[in-house]
Amino acid sequence: MPGTELAHQAEIHTLYSDHHGWLQGWLRRKLGNHCDAADIAQDTFMRLLGGRRDTARLGEEPRALLTHIARCLVIDHWRRQDVERAYLETIAHLPEPEMPSPETRWLVLETLYRIEAMLRGLPHLTRQIFLLAQLDGMKYRQISDQLNISLPTVKRHMRKAFLACLSLE
Amino acid sequence: MPEVAHQLPLSRIEPAILEEAADWLTLLRSGEATDDDRSCLEHWRCQSDMHLAAWHRAESVLGTFSQVSAPVARGTLSQLESAGRRRALKTFALLLMAAPVSWVAYRQQPWREWQADFHTTIGEQQSFDLADGTRLVLNTATAVNVSFTDSVRSLTLLQGEILITTGKDPAPVARPFLVHTDHGQLRALGTRFTVHQLGDQTRLSVYDGAVEVAPHDAIGKVVVVAGEQRLFSSARIHPSELAVDNAELWEQGMLMASDMYLGDLVCELGRYRRGVLRCDPAVASLRVSGAFPVNDTDASLTLLQQTLPVQVSRITPWWVTLKAS
Looking at domain B253-324, which CATH architecture does it have? Predict the structure, then answer.
């Protein structure tokens, strides 16, 4: 319905002009960095716009929702930085022919970030079993022998890990 | 426009269908799936848009793991695990901030509890004037939490290097100024100093006044005075060295080398640079003196190339090695 769509856009516009400067300032203090603060402030509003949230429900405290979204984005941003740093340290120890080209680097980082996100929050044993299967290509039987656990236990952990992967936003 | 099945967002797929998809994945991965199972799966998949979308997600999960080599993924994950504790602390500090607190708000209610965290990325430097008049400068890749209360001014250095010039505290009651690192606690006694958190040690350099050091696991404290530099771990404090006041230089984006090993200089420049910067051991023991811009490490490398018998070998822009020329 174009009418409500327009009203929604207008509300976002008001929200933007009222709070964007403040949000960016808040982020700059959190991050100590102008560029990242500007990017994340922008992403916060994009998220709000894309999420088709009912802006009327923002009520008297739109800044509470804005900081909530922004905080999630900051944590995400830090995680990406962590993954990138860990990746660079890892490849620093690899023989040089294994170095990916700059073009594939971005793809690899995205993939690593997704893997990290999928595994985040899984118990240690589940994670260990899942990585033996998915990264090292071990069969369930080999995993059960190596970790000295039963075959049904291996399957149970695999299922749990797959479900976590499928449930990632 | 009709919605394409695989574009259904996660929230529109019933959880029970995701559970079934997980069952299928577990079965397929077991290597025990029969032809009958496979045709059952095909039938299951085509039942509805939600099933199609769930299976699309399943295929993308399998695809993700095939896109990266096992050593790279393993290495990255284990590096992340060891860095996890620090990050958890930092994330927790961010979540604690129920409402944003600005400098202005602090100045209006001067002695209320006040918390913030500061952060620089690689190659970045930032300075901040804290509410008590202390000037805090963060060098490259640094994270600090600040917490001021009625009774104490406390900084926690999570990683990296900071320069502190303590201000005259306007609080009615004198509050101690403390800096916490992984390895111990520092108490500033009216002063200007830098704290650099290295892997298993902290380096303290004092330029004005004095700082008291108390490592976590050692008995006793040591007062480090102006002109002195000390390394300490959580177990012990190393002997005193001469502190070279180059903090003012790094604050201005310069790195001062005075008869420094090339290997050490390259390592130091690497702190300001994304990617990998290495020095061939064959040239690591060359000696270097000079001032190097850290906000333009490429210029610094060119400078080295012009003054020393070395050449910069760029495999990619973010994988650089210094070799003998």
Answer: 3-Layer(bab) Sandwich (3.55)
